[in-house]
Design brief:
single chain, alpha+beta, 11 helices, 53% helix
Amino acid sequence: MTTPLGDARGTSTLRRATAFAWRSLVRQPARAALAVLGVAAVGALLFDMLLLSHGLVLSLRDLLDRSGFDVRVGATERPGGGPLMPDAVAAAGRIAALPSVRSVLTIRMADASLEHGGSRAFATIQGVAGSGPRPWTIMRGTDLPAGESPAPSEHPRVEGPGGPAGMLLSEPAARLLGVQPGDSVDVRASCAAGRESLPPVRFRVAGVADFPFDDDQSPQAATRAESLARACGEEGARSANLILVTSTGDADAAAAAIMALDPDLRALTNDEAVGRMEEGGFTYFRQISTVLTTVTLAFAVLLITVLLTVSVNQRLGAIAALRALGFSRQRVVADVLCESALIVGMGGTLSLPLGWGLAVWLDGILKRMPGIPADLHFFVFEGRALVVHLTLLAATALLAALYPMRIVSRLPIAATLRNEVIS
């Protein structure tokens, strides 16, 4: 049983060992600075690899949660939507009647050419219908009115009494076309095979929106499903690629109820969608992170071991003299361990701001790749990464000190002092 006196002695010994290790480092500032900077560089890379291992998953989960929907329904289990569902609107009505469902929104995707004043942009248009939160954020202008429908007209380019249908543009699309809210754009939609020469339909730019999966190279647009159907030359909006569902609180129960309602539909919760994406493409970053983390730790252990071993070998005579004066074997071993802990502690502290700055820089470079949404990040801070980082650094300090500790613990006092005097 540990007594208060024993605890006090242990604390006092550790304090003296730490002070002695600090004086050993101060005596050789160049070597100590080199060791601390080396650990800081290695620790920064280690911290970045830990952030990268789960960064995309955490960022994607945040994007999905911010959309306001927690269940995605399609014809296949693709998280981003699948082929066109001909009776999606009718299916959405049946889903909306479920007790576990709060709101439903259908989304139809179509490629289109947007034209304004001689400028052209090729964009993906979302045609939305239903209730619930819209999957975008208005930056300028106004949102699409809930009850808006296309104005009647015999020719698509002739404005009816209510004017052309409204459309939202992403910032890249508005920049390419040079338009502002209130301007008009002509849309040539490509909705299905065999309809590549559809006549243009005029839309009014209601506002500029930020789409959750928008990127700087891929313009996007959104309008009501009825307006997109009109641009596609269809009489009504009945089909969609994706149905977004907001549950009443239990996403798993809502997904199960949807699957039971219509076996031809595939319902995925946000957690399941992230899991599918993680299995499909995100494992690459985790594997890269694991490999680089292992190499980084091995380098850190080797670096600190070499520096401590050199320091101990230079002070063998002084250590032997301390042992002869009454220092115990445990005390000199503790000195070496505390010296390793100080080096790793100071280097690890510096590695956090250094690693975060490096992560921001690397994140900016990786996000320049085509098709990467602007709000998606490769490096995302999480408390677990910090805990793992500190744990690995602590293990590194211990492993690096094992060999130097073995040297001082087995040091022959008399022979070392005799060699010191003779040399």
